[in-house]
Write the structure tokens for this entry.
Amino acid sequence: MAREQSSGAGSATRPASAAGLGAQQAPRPTRPQQSGSGRGGPPPTISGGSRDTRLQMDPVEKARRQMGYRNNWHRKEVDHANQVKWPEPLGPNPRVAIIGGGMSGLMCARELARLGIRSTVFDTGKHGVGGRMGTRASGESSLRSGTGTTAASTKAAAAQLGGLVFDHAAQFFTVTDPSFQSVVDDWLATGLVRVWEGPVGTLRAGAGAFARLPPSPPRYVAVGGMRRLAEALGEQLEAGGGSSLVEFRRPCWVGKMQAEEGRGWALSGEGRSQGVYDAVVVAHNGKCANRLVGPTGAPKVAEQLMRLKLNAVWCLMVAFDGPLPVNFEGAFIQGSSILSWAANNTAKLELKHTPAGTQCWTLFSTNAYGQANKVPQENIPPEVADKVAAEMVAALKQAAAGPEGSPAAAAVAAKWPKTVFTRVQLWGAALPLNTPGTPCILDPDSRVGVCGDWLSGGSLQAAAVSGITLARQIAGLRGKTQDQLAPFRLGLEAQFKPLRVTDIGEFPH
Ligand SMILES: Cc1cc2nc3c(=O)[nH]c(=O)nc-3n(C[C@H](O)[C@H](O)[C@H](O)COP(=O)(O)OP(=O)(O)OC[C@H]3O[C@@H](n4cnc5c(N)ncnc54)[C@H](O)[C@@H]3O)c2cc1C
């Protein structure tokens, strides 16, 4: 299948107006044809109907429009007659577009490369790839990617960062899957991750009662912060320059995909063509994903994306001018309507560069608090940020103290340090509340697949296994004729079940 040349690497800035993407066009109703355009064999079979193009102006949509994003497909429009079927088998050297550079997209690219398949990873991240493997540093020292450095030690990463450091999404991960364990063993051997041995457990709010969890399964943390791990994975994939099988385009928001007869999937983003691909992997979740896939010709994939429900979690990055009077480094908070998790980054990441005595903590809200205080996440009003920060710190203080009026509570209050830095982030589409319980989704007719944490749970492991599995399925499609595709059809009919272990994901801890 022929492809057009790509239009440059990922340094594109977002256009002030994305008018070029404004009119999301549906694949034209096309009768099956017998011969191709000459560039890439026969055209796909596409059928389709008319659709409503009105915009739904919910807060997220509004924020995206303010940022110059356009996408006018909305939920009720899945049209089952609108199914793309590529008539020719997938060739021996396909090119795959991976939309999303979080753990699932990175692991999908890694596995595709291992199997000799070329891919292009698109990601919106301004500071780097990684998605919800996020780390932030205060002031001007936000982590950057693409610098070609790999954290050899915490000290090196810290020297590069300076200031205060916070993992602001994934905190640690556990492993039960053998294929992921072998990847993690490599990361351990090369110093990208290590085992977090500090006290992690549960804290009963108001009782001040911390119960330490057993050390097994090991809790892995990324040396220097989660973003460093994502960056290192990206650097490994890009190593080899021109001979690398993985190309990154970042920041690049893919806003449209369209089946083109005789060519493949044409992607657009940042106001221009982003190339044509033989298969597309959607490696992100949420509204954005179902809007991208919805009008394209993979209706069953779109329907599964539409069934996903996500929680909302506030993250507070907070620094104190002294140590908190607590006996844990990480705690799942129980019995609080506001807080679900608290972690001491200074201890967890072994930060040595923070001003003497300063401690950097990451606090996560409950889903209930996230929903009750939801605002457009790209545009948080300052008064909401202040309120959320104050309430979350107060909730931690209250959770750590013993029963009200007790000597223990008075001691905690007396020793409580001063807050010297706060920054909030709302994860508006944080973690899945339901799951189809399948490692990935693949529609082999249209060659559109989905990977991500939500397909089998909400964790880094679920995301990694999903990406690896989807890559293997796509590789298996090579050379298969239409009557041989059945074993590759995955997750399209899987029923969703509720998922709720903790507000920050489903993983053994
Ligand atoms: C608050 C919080 C705490 C968590 N804590 C833990 C934990 O302690 N342990 C654990 O195991 N897991 C935890 N998780 C879950 C873990 O972070 C996720 O399971 C995992 O990172 C998901 O990876 P992913 O690849 O599926 O998606 P993501 O990481 O979300 O990656 C998707 C990527 O796609 C990009 N993207 C989206 N749309 C487009 C587009 N149109 N074009 C281009 N790029 C696009 C996004 O920018 C993003 O980078 C936590 C999550 C949250 C939110």
